[in-house]
Write a structure and sequence with these properties.
alpha+beta, four-stranded antiparallel beta sheet, three-stranded antiparallel beta sheet, 4 helices, about 50% helix
Length: about 190
């Protein structure tokens, strides 16, 4: 059965857009929890410092101060480290082409091209000669992802992109560049 889509469009996500969008995601969902834990560890470190002032010969307190400061630093550093590594990975992947297909009650997102140059290798020629199957994924590209827009789905709009989110844990970045105003309006109405 052929799916009926209101919008089908191919797009790419630049590393700069990915970095901005991932930072926006972190500001909304990662940083608040991280700041709470960082504050908790700093409060515990201050409490242990107070205990160390009262009993300077207690060496366990100095160890606990260092552990709390290390955990507070980890809470500050890890989100930034993860973002930097993901952006480096995006840069290394090249220009990946994605396709969004918007239907009634669902969105399909798929990878059209993985960003590597097609070198016309013999594997492709052998595949065509063998009468390969259309459903088979010869490029190693992942299958399309179907997002149900009626359960736990949220769209956040920013100046340069949309964040399409499923349950705050999975998100997709959809840049606005290359989309017409009518296409953007379809995405806004999801």
């Amino acid at each position: 059965m052929k799916e009926i889509y209101r919008l089908e469009k191919e797009y790419t996500v630049s590393p700069e857009t990915f970095e901005k969008a991932y930072r926006s995601y972190q500001r909304k969902f990662v940083y608040p929890k991280s700041y709470i834990f960082m504050g908790l560890f700093l409060f515990l470190a201050a409490d242990f410092i107070y205990a160390a002032v009262k009993q300077p010969d207690n060496t366990l307190v100095y160890l606990l101060i260092m552990v709390c400061l290390a955990f507070a630093f980890r809470e500050w550093h890890n989100p930034r480290f993860v973002r930097r590594r993901l952006v480096e990975t995006m840069r290394g992947m090249g220009e990946v082409v994605y396709k969004i297909s918007v239907g009634d009650g669902f969105i399909d997102i798929s990878t059209v091209s993985d960003g590597s140059a097609d070198d016309g290798s013999e594997d492709d020629d052998e595949y065509e000669e063998s009468g390969g199957c259309e459903d088979e994924d010869i490029d190693g590209l992942p299958e399309k992802t179907r997002i149900n827009t009626e359960e736990g789905f949220k769209t956040l709009e920013y100046d340069e992109y949309f964040l399409l989110m499923q349950d705050k844990k999975i998100f997709y970045i959809l840049p606005k560049t290359g989309f017409s105003e009518e296409e953007l309006e379809i995405i806004r109405k999801i």
